[in-house]
Write a structure and sequence with these properties.
Blueprint (H helix, E strand, L loop, with lengths): L1 E2 L2 E2 H28 L10 H7 L10 H26 L2 H33 L21
Antiparallel strand pairs: 1-2
Length: 144
């Protein structure tokens, strides 16, 4: 049975991805609870624990913030994977695309880090600076 571009296979794989990412979310929530001084078995009372911490700020390092980001990141990853699966119509192509994207980021990082280092080096030695504005500028960088 085919519903537009969605097939039963896509629905089953998307459901399987949701189950896998839900398990991963629970595992990461357990780690977050341990980081904040709770036990592994306290995951069953996460709603009560969050109610106890409800008046804390939504800032980095607080329990609410960590739980929120864990859940959001897993939902976004699930949405991305299921959308990519719908587009490619083949799970192996989705995995290859993710590996390729990761490889691209891994290869692009040294280029950008080296470029930033070259900008810093070219601006640093013996450069005259404006006494009012002590920030480095890119006005006289020779390779741009």
């Amino acid at each position: 049975m085919k519903l537009g571009v969605m097939t039963c296979e896509w629905a089953l794989i998307t459901a399987l991805l949701f189950v896998l990412l839900a398990g991963s979310t629970v595992a990461f929530l357990v780690r977050i609870l341990k980081k904040h001084g709770y036990r592994k078995s306290d995951i069953k009372q996460i709603d009560e624990i969050l109610e106890e911490h409800w008046n804390e700020p939504w800032d980095w390092g607080y329990l609410k913030y960590d739980v929120k980001h864990c859940i959001i990141y897993h939902l976004v990853l699930w949405g991305f994977l299921s959308s990519a699966l719908l587009e490619f119509r083949n799970f192996s192509l989705v995995i290859v695309a993710l590996i390729g994207f990761g490889f691209l980021l891994l290869m692009a990082y040294p280029f950008f880090a080296t470029s930033k280092l070259l900008l810093w080096i070219s601006d640093y030695p013996g450069r005259e600076r404006d006494p009012v504005d002590s920030r480095p500028s890119l006005k006289n960088v020779w390779f741009l």
